[in-house]
Amino acid sequence: MSSLPSLPSTAPVSLATSMDGHCVPGLIEGQEFESVQRSGLFGKLLSVDRESVTSMARSMRSNATYRSAGYSISASSYKDGSGKDRDVGVAPPQHASWVAIAFIMISEVVGAGVLTLSQKYAELGYVPASLLILANFFLLYYTAWQMVEVKKVFAAAVSISDAMDYTFGRVLRTTCHVILLINLTFVLGDYLLLIGKSLGSTIYNIHLCSPIWTLIGSAIAGSLLCSLRYLHSTTALCVVSVLTISGSVGIVIVALVVNGRAADVESPIFAEGLDFMQFMQSQSAIYFTFSGQFMFFELMSEMKDFTEFTKTFRIAGPFQVSIYLLVGCVGYYYKGTEASGYFLDNLGFGPAYRVASALLCFHIIVGFVIVGNVLCRILHIQFSPFRANDLSWRGRLEWAAVGFGVTATSFVIANAIPFFDLLTGLIGGLLLPPLCLLAPVLLYIKTRHMVERPLAIWEWVINLSLVAFGVMLMVISTMENVRELISNWSTFGAPFSCHCQGMWDTCECSKKRIEYSGGFNCSSIAP
């Protein structure tokens, strides 16, 4: 096999040690490696020790396992106190099993989006909405498999930006990196707002303003973020998180069953008057509830064997699809075309609402910690690569400082922008399709080209169709979010406004919820 023209000619070298000076495990005797310089990790010049081009092609063809512990990434522009070059071990320790990663994935991917699915059923009907949930899950699985195949070749990649650098070069790496940072920042802000809302809903008789509840939630979530250094450290929290979101949804379902279905409720199998634009808008919302690919490389980089990543769907898949179908179908059956966009809105004030809100709050806090961990690690490596895996007091202090900065920045941005929720939807519609659909497909296509294993015609048809679908999702989602932003422009308050909608037990803030509660007299409750 000839050398690839896009890669520099190199000579085989022996593999250096991995991070923290430990010996590299699991090398195959006689395997060829080469040293390549790339303008890679976070804009710095990298020396990458990896399999030779021939070995990479062999890897793709044989489906062999190549661990990222078998690679050394060093920022060659850095020197220690004696003036000597030092390797920077930026890859995290590989301790996690695929079972642990499955629970982490569930906690991150199954976020607040699941609470809106009954409304999507109201917009589509039983059959279209259920089929879209199944189709989007298989799309998630397929793109995850593609990312595993890419990492088999470029096993040193610990983020989607790294993979983009190894395949397409610095310009697209930088573009992908900026998109990732913006998306992570706004997702964290959205999480903090929801944490504040669920905290206030848990203690709905204490009338604190939304920014105050969000500040309290930020302190709790930020403390956890500063103390948990790696994603696999959140495994125990994630197991509990899976139980809490199940409990929160279960409480609402029990309440709906007990209250029964009203005689005038209509739940058609196919929504009446459904047109193409409405279908695509609802499909976009359902797709975003499955969008976690932007952090799959980070999850793989902490696994004992990243080639087992697709096994995570043995746990995550059945749970995710089941809870999505359950929330959508049950909410739609009992509320019909009037199904709420927030599942907990089906509860009135009372003990059940307190417990469901508290369970949801815990689940969203864990989601914040997972996404925050990804952003903090990116920034920590950016500013202090030598301390990325340093567990000394200085390394821990640096991590805590980054975690505090990320939490504080997300809190300020989320509360300073009056239309932050809609802005987050706009940015998600604009950035998530490139990160979670276009990038995995394009990375896979380019990697197959680099290892001289061309795609068959049917593979081109599938992958180019996905690219076209991703572009269409991005355009339609952006158009819808811009329209909604414009139509609601007059309703926005000032920065750090005291919002209480659906949270305080007053008629002014929560008239509909008080009506659900039964026994509340609006005139007796102070506004």
From TrEMBL:
GO molecular-function terms, A-Z: L-amino acid transmembrane transporter activity
Q: What membrane topology does the annotation report for this chain?
A: Multi-pass membrane protein
Q: Which domain of life is it from?
A: Eukaryota
Q: Name one Pfam family in it.
A: Aa_trans
Q: Does the keyword Hydrolase apply?
A: no
Residues spanning the membrane: 96-118, 124-142, 178-196, 202-225, 237-258, 313-334, 354-376, 397-420, 426-445, 457-479
Locations listed in the record:
Membrane
Q: What is its main location?
A: membrane
Keyword tags: Amino-acid transport, Membrane, Transmembrane, Transmembrane helix, Transport
Q: Which GO terms describe its cellular component?
A: membrane
The residues covered by the Amino acid transporter transmembrane domain are: 96-479
| Protein name per Swiss-Prot or TrEMBL | Amino acid transporter
